[in-house]
Specification:
about 180 residues; alpha/beta; Leucine-rich repeat, LRR (right-handed beta-alpha superhelix); four-stranded parallel β-sheet; 3 helices
Length: about 180
């Protein structure tokens, strides 16, 4: 076995005491500022741990009444708010806004790892739901309940290996399911 030459080994006293101290000070400052184990909850598309659920939205209006978007997956909330005219925050969205939404909801390429039952509740007017190019491994049973106008559902380029029985139940107008 060949032993590395002394020139490749770090010199005694490496790393310099000042560098090591600076690293420790920065680490302590970060933990103090954000708290141990803290994470930015509202960052869309991030999976915090293998198999961890996506961050949920906290949508409460001035009267502390949860909006119909409260508790949904953050990326879903962001896409819905973007579709509602003249609304720029989730707390202002009402059930009437959801019922009036038609056309497409684009959630493709959002690094989604999980969705929740209720993420698409109240969106009966949607005709297209794009969920392709994410990292979904499974879908909860009942996820698509109530999407009675849905004609196109794209789930291509995910990590789906099996779907629960009845996954597409209630999708009476579905013409183009894209699952690959």
């Amino acid at each position: 076995m060949k032993v590395p030459s002394r020139a490749l080994l770090p010199a005694a006293g490496w790393p310099p005491r000042g560098v090591l101290l600076a690293v420790v000070v920065v680490a302590v400052a970060l933990v103090t500022l954000v708290g141990p184990g803290a994470r930015p909850e509202a960052t869309p598309g991030r999976a915090w741990a293998q198999g961890a659920a996506e961050p949920t939205a906290t949508c409460t209006n001035a009267q502390s009444t949860p909006s119909p978007l409260h508790g949904r997956t953050q990326q879903v909330v962001t896409a819905i708010v973007a579709k509602v005219a003249n609304i720029d925050n989730c707390a202002a969205v009402t059930a009437e806004h959801l019922a009036a939404l038609t056309g497409s909801l684009r959630l493709n390429n959002q690094a989604l790892t999980a969705l929740r039952v209720g993420d698409f509740a109240g969106l009966a007017g949607l005709t297209t739901l794009n969920l392709y190019e994410n990292q979904l491994q499974t879908l909860p049973a009942g996820l698509f309940m109530g999407l009675t106008s849905l004609e196109r559902l794209s789930l291509n380029s995910n990590r789906l290996s099996a779907l629960p029985v009845g996954s597409f139940e209630g999708l009476i107008n579905l013409r183009t399911p894209g699952v690959a």
